[in-house]
Structure formats: structure tokens, C-alpha cells
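Hey team,

Filing this mostly as a record. A colleague (T.K.) asked me to run one chain through the structure pipeline before their review meeting, and I want the input and output archived in the tracker in case anyone asks later how it was produced. No errors, nothing strange. Just documentation.

Input sequence:
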Amino acid sequence: MERCTNAYSFLFFAFCILLLYPCTSFSQKQVEIVHAGSLKFDKNLGNGAKRLIGDVEFKQENTHMFCDSAYFYENNSLDAFGHVHINQNDSINMFGELLNYDGNSKKAVISKSVVVDKGDMHLTTEVLNYDMGTSVGSYSTPARIINKENVLTSDQGYYFAKKNELTFKKNVVLTNPQFVMNSDTMRYNTTSKITYFLGPSTIKSKENLIYCEDGWYDTQKDLSRFSRNAYILTKEQKMYGDSLYYNRKKGIGRAVKNVNVIDTVHKIDINGDYAIHDEFSNTSIVTGHAILTQRFDKDTLYVHADTLKAIGAKDSARSNAIKQTNLKGKKEVSAPKSDKQIAVDTSKNNQTLFAYHRVKFFKKDLQGKCDSLAYKLADSTMRLFGTPTLWSEENQLTADSMNFIIGKKSIKSMYLKGNSFIVSKEDSLRFNQIRGKEMKGYFKNDTLYLVHVEGNGQTIYYVKDKDVIKAVNRADCSDLNVYLKNNKIKNLVFITKPDATLYPLEQIDVKELKLKDFTWREQDRPLKVMDIFNW
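Output structure:
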């Protein structure tokens, strides 16, 4: 009885094995011969090879393979020759001259003049490895991919048919009518038309060059983001930012964190935490620790404000082209003014730079403070508003408003309007003072050497003998000239109807030692560059 039970157990186990065996060994679909002009056995090849000639067609599940001739082997593999055509799921077609296909692993190697056609994506190369099971292809020979207006070439790559995505490596170039992209590694989705940068990359157009090491560009929606050492280079300037964003259809660009715009024409740098540029109005705004730096031959000017703004000439042609494109839904014919230009084109002579509010600036021999500032490049004029104060060595200059003419190398002249004052300190109680309706100042080598006072001129000036104050000269004069040497008052020349009196110190009332509207703002003066951030 025990022997019978053991035999029964053995037969049951064997039966189970037979049931499982088809699932493991025969579940793999065999490659079928659908059609051939003729079929022959080739004993010379062995492996039960069948030779098929003329209008050959194979099938495996949803994949059809066509060729002029082929060898079909007992191990479910084949070699195909001449006009090879593979159709998978009626959605992707592959062409070539040679095919080696393993029906068990579903892996194919197509070679010679290979073409992959999937709707609006067209790929050509010399050798393509393709997995029918995963719908993933790869190539290590130079390839060319065309997707509508985008043409991409690379030496290596992977094609993911199910995701409609390609990954490229080595000498990657994407050419678009408006720009050319070069990258070390790039990923591209043929459905979304989005390009992803995974290594050092450049985008070059007629107007600029963009560099980044990470980011993406939506070629269909004209949206983009660039990061990791990203910058934009134009003929006039170079702009950096931790992250750069651009919406070409709206003409809006943004830069975030560590923003730096370098204007090589005017030797101006602008730094900040955030920047935005509107191409339609040609307006740029920089905020967050915003600072403008202008380099001169011997010195540098630093300007800080809550907001720095630049307005240039409007590009009417660019603006109208984009607006018409947005309305009609058609792609403009002309190339864009700038694919990612966030900073204003400072080559425009009528560009104006604004700084507001809480403006402070520092130069070794010149410092200032005001509420707002305007700098027009057309006439190199800088205008200060809102309680402006200027310090030049020992002298403090104040007025209702101030204008400066800045040359290529240094400051040339200044114009003070409304309640103008020049004050220098002798001691805690005594100040040299010049007051007038308007003042014009002139510089040599960044040093103030002459001030011309016009209208209601008044002065209080202390006379010294061997650095000891002996008397005070108080004068009223409509117009006068103030000559300075080494930023110190050297001489006063009264021009129109002077009325001057020299008083010994003991004969003048202390109340008479300060002119009307006198103010001393020493505590507001920036003594070093970092002081411009303190208000």
C-alpha cells in the first residue's frame, strides 16, 4: 500500500510539472512565417535554417517584419536582408537593410541606412539596437532626428518609444529655425517638444548665447528654465543667475538668486536677488540687495537701492511680431530679438537707469544719499531726488535736487538746484558754509575744484593763521565762485555786488554762525562700500 501511495505522489508531482512547463517554456510566442515567395532548407547553415526568398513577412504578436530574403532558425531567431521593414503596434515603423532578431528575447539589431518613423518623429542612423518587449532602442553611431521644425544629431542615444522620449550623448546638436542647442547630454520628448539639459549646454541665436548645465526648453510653448552656472551673453552684456526663466511668447524673462548683469559697453554691473525683463516695453527691474557698480579708470562707483530699474528704447518690430503671433497662433518668420534676454540692451543711447527708494552710493572720493535717482545714458546725466546729499572729502553738498554729468572716465560736472548748500566742518561748533539758489560744480580727475554760485549767494568762511581760527568772514553776494584744492576751500571770488564783513570770533553771536536751513548729515555718510546697505 505504501509503494502505491509513493507512486501516486510521484505521478501527481510529474503532472504538476507538465502543467507548469508550458507556462515557463512555451509561453513565449513563436515567430511565425506569414508569407514568402519560396522556402528552402539550407543544410550548410545547420540549426534547421530555412531560407526564405521574395516578399518575406514574419509576425510575432503585434510586430510584423518584412524583407527581401531571410534565414529563419529553429531557435526562434532570424536574419533578414534587403528592404527590411518592422512595424510594431501599427504606430512605429523601422527600416534598414539588415536585421538580426531573437524572437525569445525580442531584441533586434537593424543596420545600414536605418530609419525609425513614428508619426512626426523621424530618426536615421547606421545601427540601431531595439527591444520589442520594452520598446527601447539605442544607437552608438551618429544619428539624426527630425521632429517638425527641430533637427537633432548625436553620436549616441536611447529611444523610448512608449514614452516618446529620446536621450542623447556626445556631440548633441539641436537645430531650430530660431536657435541652435549644443549639449553633452540631452533628453527630448517628441510629444511635449520639451528639451532637457543634463550637462554643459549652449543655446545660440543671432542675438545671444545661453549657457547652462541643467534646465529645460519647451520648443512648442517657448518656455524655458536654465540653472547651474547659467548665463546669457550678448554683444553688450553678460547676465548670470542661479535660475533663469523665459516666456518668449509674452516676452517676459526672470532671473532668480545671485543675479549679475555685466554691461561691457558702459562698464556697469548690476547685482541683486531677483530680476525681471519685459521685452515689449524693454524694461528691466532688479530687486533684493540690488547694487549697481560702474568702473572708472582709477575708481569704482557703487549704487544701492531697494529697486533698480532700466528702461530702453521699445523694440516695436519685435513687440508687434510677438503680439501678432499670439493672436494668430502662427509662428513668426523673423528671429526673436532675444531668446532669453533679461537685461536691457544698454547700447540704446536713450536708455535710462532708475534707483529707488533709499538710495546710497559710494566712491572713494564721492559719496551720496537720496530717495531716488535717475541716470540717463544719452547725455550721461545722473539726477538725484528726495533730500539728496553729496559728500566730497570734507565737503557736504545738499539741495532740493542734483544733477551730475558723468564722462567715460570720471564725473565731469554737477548742478545743484533749490536751496543749495556746501558745508565743511571746522570743529564741533564751526562750519564753513556756502548757500545759494543754484550751484554748478566742476571736476578734474574726479576731484571737485570749482563751484559757481548763482542767486542769493551767502557765505560763512573761517580765516585761519597757522591752522588757528582767527576770524570769520560773512558775506552776501548774488553770484560767486568757490575754488577748491585737495577738496578744501582755497579761495572765494565774489562776482556781483558783494557785501562782506570780517568779524573777530569774539565779536560775532554764535547764532550768526549758521545760515538759514543749515543742516549737517554726517551720520548718514557711507564711509565704506558696505555702508550703502545701511539706512
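Quick notes for T.K.: The chain has two helices and 40 strands. The two ends are 105 Å apart (CA to CA).
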